[in-house]
Amino acid sequence: MPELDRVDRPNLGATIDIRLFRALSLFSLRDVVGEDASKTLAYAGGKALGRRTKFKEFEEFLQWMEKKSIARTKSFTFDSDKGIGNLILLETLSSAGLPNLGKPACSFETGLISGVIERLKDRRCLVREIRCYGKGDPECEFYIEVLDVPAYLKRM
Ligand SMILES: [Zn+2]
After folding, report:
1. Given 68, 73, 110, 123, which is the most exposed site by the fewest CB atoms within 10 A?
2. Strands (E), 34-139
3. Interstrand relation of 84-90 and 123-131 (parallel, antiparallel or unpaired)
4. pLDDT tens-digit map of 12-24
């Protein structure tokens, strides 16, 4: 997104400590609006961001995620006939290195993936994180299903 590319911080640069992002997305928002609502906000924010992207194909998005230090892709498969895919990410922004919280922690990434796919396919998309560092897993894995419903029918 070109409007976000310009950063005027000659001394501090364009990056921040990701622990600050985690503190905001995992704890501060939770303290303000509660756990469920904070996850919904992180998901919705990621999804809105994903919808604003202009990638021509999903692999381009995966490369962008690595370039932006959001996550590295371990594997991605997608069955176009069934509209079902699987994505495994490493070093995810939201959760890599977290202690076992007993639940997935990558709401932002889940929403982001969903938003990008909805943009690319112009169909609603279900993305569910089925394995996560936050659950004690060694990586984050996402189940992806493109639904046969136009994206404009649901904007969440
Ligand atoms: Zn995760």
Report:
1. 68
2. 72-79, 84-90, 123-131
3. unpaired
4. 988 889 999 888 8
For residue range 61-105, list pLDDT tens digits in order. Answer: 999 999 999 999 999 999 999 999 999 999 999 999 999 999 999
Residue 8 CA to ligand 1 center (angstroms) comes to 31
Q: How far is the CA of 130 from the centre of ligand 1 (A)?
A: 8
What is the pTM (predicted TM-score) of this model? Answer: 0.91
State the sign of the Cα–Cα–Cα–Cα dihedral 21, 26, 87, 122: negative
A 10 A CB-CB count for 66 gives 14
Cα dihedral: 50, 107, 32, 45 (round 10):
0
**Domain boundaries, given as residue ranges, for the chain:** 17-153
Domain 17-153 is found in CATH 3.40.50.920: no
Ligand 1 mean position to 32 CA, how many Å?
22
Q: From start to end of 9-121, where are the E strands? A: 72-79, 84-90
Q: Ligand 1 centroid vs 131 CA: distance in angstroms? A: 7
CA 134 to ligand 1 centroid distance, Å: 6
Question: 40: CA distance to ligand 1 center in Å?
Answer: 15
CB 99 within 8 A of CB 134: no
